């Protein structure tokens, strides 16, 4: 599947903390930046951390139940290959990242079986990283 890169801008309370997390912990290469924002290469997609402390304070604390877990809303993330997902989970554990939902397999035995994990960046933005047991079934329904 050849997809165009997506672009996502999100608020952060501290650009230095965002650089440390997204660049250091997540391993995203930094692109263009200014005093108020910074681009990152998020596995080929462009995400932009914008210094906006007032917006960070408004990050929603809502959750929806999905397969027995309280999934934070809103959130953003990626669907990686399974090996890349495992490696990232270990890197995050090694960096001491606190998981909102620990890495695990959900929807076992169903069309949408997937590995998933949820965590937050230093500004509280919820991130989900998942990997499909069968990548061809990303949009499949039972």
UniProtKB/TrEMBL annotation:
Domain of life: Bacteria
Pfam families tied to this protein: Glyoxalase
The VOC domain, residue ranges: 4-132
Alphabetical list of InterPro entries matching this protein: Glyas_Bleomycin-R_OHBP_Dase (IPR029068), Glyas_Fos-R_dOase_dom (IPR004360), VOC_core (IPR037523)
Protein name (record): Glyoxalase-like domain protein
Source organism of this protein record: Paraurantiacibacter namhicola
